[in-house]
Amino acid sequence: MNDSVFLKRTIVKHTLWSESLGEERKLRVYLPPGYNELLSYPVVYCQDGEEFFNFGRIATIAGRLILEEGAEPFIIVGVEVNVAVRTQEYAPFGTRFDQYLSCFAEEIIPYIEQNYPVRRTPSERIVAGDSLGGSVSLHLALRYPDLFTRVLSLSGAFYPLTLEWIEDETDLSQLNINMVVGLQERDYQTDTGVYDFVQLNRDARKLLEERGAKVDYREKEGRHIWGFWQKELPESLLYFLNA
């Protein structure tokens, strides 16, 4: 099928006032081919929403998966972030971390569910992120297990504090997480230090599985960049959304 077919899409932009953060938060909502508000749809919530659309090309990928790969039509919600405070919102040691989790679970989810026919069970709600976005997605599932049980993590930045939080859990049998990491991510410089993302992901996988989580894990040739994540997105999405 010609690529132009997949480039035709409906993306609606919203601005939500967050009491938790004390500021506005922008959202992008992708509606699948044949969208009908009388139907109901699984939903993928993405951290770094602008990047998932611009660099991950998730809308184009979604169209291709739905029209060619037999994926069930789904809605995508991209939650945008101010890069200047990203670590403060996404990292468990960040000064805005608790407020961001509250905003996501207690404000963004209800807002979307009031305005779109998304399914409201944890098994039909996926939360996705890259790097620290993968980490904060897991933290949302740990803090709000009644809302989130499916996590899509692209090179998750599972820093030591996150590993400690996983270790404190006793039963994660409700959790289903898809993890991918690039083998060229062993010496990555972040704003808080240099990390071996391969080892951190291996450690997170081990801790999660020991606590009963279902983990779909893969290591591929790749670096800590969107060029790698974009290529891996279709497989990760189909893991959850294959009809």
TrEMBL record:
Domain of life: Bacteria
Coiled-coil residue spans: none
Protein name in UniProt: Putative esterase
Gene3D superfamilies: alpha/beta hydrolase
InterPro entries xref list: AB_hydrolase_fold, Esterase-like, Mycobacterial_A85_antigen
Species for this entry: Paenibacillus sabinae T27
